[in-house]
Write a structure and sequence with these properties.
Layout lengths: L8 H22 L2 E2 L1 H4 L1 E8 L5 H11 L12 E5 L4 E6 L4 H11 L5 E9 L1 H29 L2 H25 L2 E2 L1 H29 L7 H11 L1 H21 L5 H29 L3 H4 L20
Parallel strand pairs: 1-6
Antiparallel strand pairs: 2-4, 2-5, 3-4
């Protein structure tokens, strides 16, 4: 299998720019649904022994909202999973006494097992949000520094633009789906950064190796050949990773839904971007290099069969 990527660089970059705008639009129109990790509040997760419905839960909560304002219909969020009888209730921050009263009241519906009970202050939530932003920015800057030192600054710019596309895709899809943003979501975004740039680095390494060998190919042809040499490897690696993520998404339960979906989108889009964005961007930044690229000629006819390094 041999694909012409560099030949249609402008087409791929245009398509990627349009998709970036679409993902960005999803993000700004819908916005992120921050969980209690970032906004502060209380979360209670219960696992009922018998089937339970959202109507049953809301009926009890409406009755209790008279005594506990945090449980009013406009202030709470209730999620019921019919598959495993799990109930997740999110509210503004409640006291320990109020939480115990809520747990006692919910026993009227049926027996349950308390899976988790968490309380996060609003101040801590803001600190977590700031720390998450710092982590993403610092991670991006370190990636730029590393690629610049190992390759060239233009390679680093192409790599970071590719990562920006991948992260925006994940943010846009999660915003559109309305999934709750928690700390594992930040871990998923950082994982996408590492996974996607790793795929890009593999391509950059092959490009660097190809440029050092004697060849009659133009700069663009060297890029395209290098990309095709790692194409199957990139696809196979991504497919096996995505299969594992699908299994986690299906059997992992609601608590891992945001984390797994984010990785699915990010890694899937990252595979495309490493092939169809990063390398075409390098070519567009350096397309005048086609005219300058001249393989070093043999000084001795007897060495015609050996590979020599070239100056680019």
């Amino acid at each position: 299998m041999y694909i012409e990527v560099i030949k249609h660089s402008k087409r791929w970059i245009t398509l990627s720019a349009i998709s970036f705008i679409v993902f960005l639009g999803m993000f700004f129109v819908k916005g992120l649904n921050y969980g209690i990790d970032f906004t502060g509040g209380s979360l209670i997760q219960l696992n009922y022994t018998e089937s339970i419905t959202l109507t049953d839960i809301n009926k009890e909560l409406d009755a209790l909202a008279i005594e506990i304002p945090q449980l009013s219909s406009t202030a709470r969020k209730v999620q019921v999973s019919a598959a495993d009888n799990n109930v997740i209730i999110r509210t503004a921050e409640m006291s320990e006494a109020q939480s115990q009263e809520l747990l006692s009241k919910l026993k009227v519906i049926g027996e349950y097992k308390l899976e988790r009970s968490e309380k996060v202050g609003a101040t801590i939530g803001e600190e977590l949000k700031s720390s998450a932003i710092y982590a993403l920015v610092i991670g991006g800057l370190l990636i730029v520094l590393y690629i610049t030192m190992r390759y060239e600054f233009k390679f680093a710019v192409a790599g970071i633009l590719t990562l920006l596309h991948d992260v925006t895709a994940a943010l846009g899809v999660i915003a559109l789906l309305g999934y709750e943003i928690d700390t594992p979501f930040i871990a998923a975004i950082l994982t996408i950064l590492g996974y996607s740039i790793n795929d890009t680095i593999i391509i950059y390494d092959r490009i660097r190796e190809s440029l050092r060998k004697k060849s009659d190919l133009t700069f663009g042809e060297v890029l395209n050949k290098s990309l095709n040499q790692v194409l199957v490897r990139s696809i196979n690696t991504s497919v096996t990773t995505l299969l594992a993520l699908v299994a986690i998404l299906v059997f992992g339960g609601d608590s891992l839904r945001t984390f797994t979906t984010t990785l699915l989108v990010g890694i899937g889009v990252g595979t495309y971007s490493s092939l169809y964005i990063s390398t075409p961007l390098v070519y567009l930044f350096e397309k005048n290099r086609d005219e300058k690229y001249e393989p070093k000629k043999d000084d001795d006819a007897s060495d015609s069969g050996s590979e020599e390094k070239i100056l680019v």
